[in-house]
Amino acid sequence: MSVAIYPGSFDPITYGHLDIVERAAAVFDRLVVAVLRNPRKAALFDEDDRIEVIRRAIAEELPPEVGRRVSIDRFDGLTVEAARRHGAGFVVRGLRAVSDFESELQMAHFNRKLAPGIDTVFFMTALEHAYLSSSLVKEIARFGGDVRGMVPAAVAERLQSVAAGWSADPTVG
Ligand code: ADP
Description:
Elements: E1 3-8, H1 15-27, E2 30-36, H2 47-61, H3 64-67, E3 70-75, H4 79-85, E4 90-95, H5 98-114, E5 119-124, H6 134-142, H7 153-168
Parallel strand pairs: 1-2, 1-4, 2-3, 4-5
The structure holds adenosine-5'-diphosphate.
Adenosine-5'-diphosphate binds at residues 8-10, 14, 16-17, 20, 93-94, 96, 100, 125, 129, 132-134.
């Protein structure tokens, strides 16, 4: 059975990520979406919230046969350790542009050095999601823009309620 892990911050998950989840789930028997707890990166949503919206997005917006192959976990520390814990032989990452390539290449080499039995597999972004990033989505929401079409409904709802707090108190967020 082929198992892959898709690690990321997912703060929050976008349609770019969800598309990679669906495509990777068609290639591997099991896919673990692994939410990174990164103390060095200030996150808008805590891990529980990020996991909850990923769970809803998969249940509500992907076909059930895809959802059955996907699980969600959280991790900190090394990606390869998380992969080992899940018995994953592959790390899935997405590539949007040349600018992603350099750091992704370095990370793939680094992970291969640490764990030669675990390979990184890249999926090219779908053209319609090439411009999408979690930080762009947060910025749009912060200025009151409409993020539907960029993120799953579960995320749009959460961003809307967070943005309502920002407009009530412009000094936060
Ligand atoms: P990280 O902080 O680990 O980069 P992200 O949540 O930003 O976590 O991204 C996780 C993975 O998803 C990365 O491989 C990233 O390149 C990929 N990704 C992000 N946005 C998109 C997108 N719009 N299309 C395809 N892949 C994407």
